[in-house]
UniProtKB/TrEMBL annotation:
Residues 60-247 form the ABC transmembrane type-1 domain. It is found in: Cell membrane. The chain crosses the membrane at residues 9-30, 59-85, 97-119, 125-147, 168-192, 229-250. This is ABC transporter permease.
Length: 265
């Protein structure tokens, strides 16, 4: 009984540590007062001002477009790289995978400064440099997502498709892709999350005139965070929560409906 109590207490403590700051942020987005310590009444004013603020909307658009673009390109590059690495012999596989893991273990500030120096030498810092930088640090996450699934895949199915007359492209699309698709989707969303969440690499490679949400919030820290940013953060949190609920519960609902139809038939 005592052990169960402490287990539950520990779980509640961890959840509170994770979600209480988000709850405070949500409450501040509805606070009519600009103060973070005084409640001035319920209001939706900050949400209206958020959508009317062109700077916030521009930064949000840049963040979303940059995240989707870098995640899509990183997924394609990571998929091709995973297929190549999986076909290597054991020594080459381990060496290449180890080199890829260096970028995961490397400090963001080192990656950011290195990419800044590289891009400043060969191109003008701007949107393109940020896009290439995000692709660079997103590819290893895609590799780590797809490679384990490739190693678990039954290659005999692909060989059987080839023996039955399917060409290489058809066998790849019809056999391999369906088996690794969950890992590809997982890698895409992981890359998207890392891209939209990044600050350090973006800060060093963005140049003048480019702002994402993270760099814009950083520029407001000295002056004080505006309440509109609380509203924006709440909208983003709500959107992520809705997506997670749909991903987790829609397949279950569809499966229950399918079973009812099969049982009724």
């Amino acid at each position: 009984m005592v052990k169960r109590f402490f287990n539950r207490f520990y779980l509640i403590l961890i959840l509170a540590f994770l979600y209480v700051p988000i709850l405070v942020l949500v409450l501040l987005s509805f606070n009519a007062s600009r103060s973070r310590v005084m409640w001035g009444g319920f209001t939706l004013e900050w949400y209206g001002e958020m959508f009317a603020n062109s700077q916030i909307m521009e930064a949000l658009g840049t963040t979303v477009v940059l995240g989707l673009s870098s995640a899509a390109l990183a997924t394609l590059i990571g998929l091709a790289g995973a297929l190549g690495i999986d076909a290597m012999r054991k020594r080459g596989y381990s060496l290449t995978l180890g080199l890829g893991n260096i970028t995961l273990l490397n400090a963001d500030i080192v990656t950011g400064i290195a990419l800044m120096l590289w891009f400043a030498r060969f191109m003008k810092l701007g949107y393109s440099s940020v896009l290439f930088a995000h692709i660079t640090f997103c590819v290893p996450y895609v590799l780590l997502s797809i490679l384990p699934r490739l190693r678990q895949m039954d290659i005999s199915i692909y060989e059987a498709a080839r023996d039955l007359g399917a060409n290489t492209l058809t066998a790849f699309v019809k056999v391999i892709i369906p088996q690794i698709l969950p890992a590809v989707v997982s890698g895409f969303f992981m890359a998207l999350t890392m891209s939209m969440d990044d600050f350090v690499v973006t800060y060093f490679t963005k140049g003048a005139g480019i702002n994402t949400l993270s760099t814009m919030i950083y520029s407001q820290v000295r002056k004080g965070i505006k309440p509109e940013m609380y509203a924006l953060s709440t909208v983003i949190f709500a959107a992520v929560l809705i997506v997670l609920l749909l991903v987790n519960y829609v397949p279950q609902i569809a499966e229950r409906r399918r079973k009812r139809i099969c049982a009724g038939g």
